[in-house]
Amino acid sequence: MNKLDVVGLTKKLISIPSWVDKKTNENAVGYFIFDYLKANSKLKVEKQILKGGRFNVIAKNNNLVSTLVVGHIDTVQPSVSWTKNPLKPSVGKGLLYGLGSSDMKSGVAVMLDLATNPKLKENIMFLFYADEEYDFLGMKGFVKKYLGKIKPKQIISFDGSDLAVTNGCRGLIEISITLKGKSGHAARPESGVNAITRSYLIINNLINWLGNYVSRELGPTTSNLAYIYGGQYQGEKDGFLILGKQGNVIADICRFTLDIRPSRPELTAQKVIDFIRQEAKKYSLALMDSSVRHNLGSWSTPKKLIDLNGLKLSFRPAGQTGYIDVQMLWQNFNRIPCYTIGAGNAMAHKPDEYVEVKNIIKLSEIGKKLITNGI
Length: 375
Fold this sequence. Notes:
Alpha-Beta Plaits
């Protein structure tokens, strides 16, 4: 397989679908990355098999790891709003269009370009991982396998934006709660306990309580009531609640989903559930059920600990980003310095996504300064 320049690599990666649905996943682009590294680098390259036959690609030049370089290989699905072919990369006015061009196939291309550089520093490991846009299968699998086996001194992710450094992010807690009240006749409110209206009171109290979790670097903890429904309990079928919706009957069940972005690492899903349980008792409700989809903390590396090898790069406000799964690495590998940088932009996840060609080239030059012995 012939070696490509970094823009050519970006185009090739874009042309390989890597979103995740019932028919598609990131395996095809993973095979390309694996084969390309085998053909063009001197690194030891391996696949880390994950659930369902999906895999990460790992490449290293030494069993000792000082710098871990990471990037995800999946994308979101293309929306029907695209006016261009999302898998046919095209260039116009200095912009490279294509699905994942911004997030983050340009970053993966830079990683591949660096991994094949003959002046690559010693003790470098590259992780090309699956499933970042969905449920973090790849990152969780890597942490599980390598925790205690490697001791990197810094972690660099090329999943960033605008050639600026991001040194932290708020966490991600997603929980679903079911509260049970007491049914009764609507004409006599005192005959029951309305689970829906009292759940709103509890949620408002929760929002006020979350105000205690504020970080100087990451700002306030925020929350989003993503989904709520309720009614009269009539049983369950295949794990789903069956609820009545008669207007003259007091609703005794309320179920809701919350997305919470903690800015302090000590705030956990269990603490949120415990708070809701205590509040429920105050309002004569019972916690019937709770489930946790995500329980991911915040991450913050002080700027003074980040070694940019003399590069004068700007920093993005860390509290304005979404969750970045580099946090899992930071948390599990002794909170060593971690940061992201990338060629991406605000077009990530949008129709007609693009990246500036000049920024891909600049990111490649930055990467060479960071992890090679000269450009």
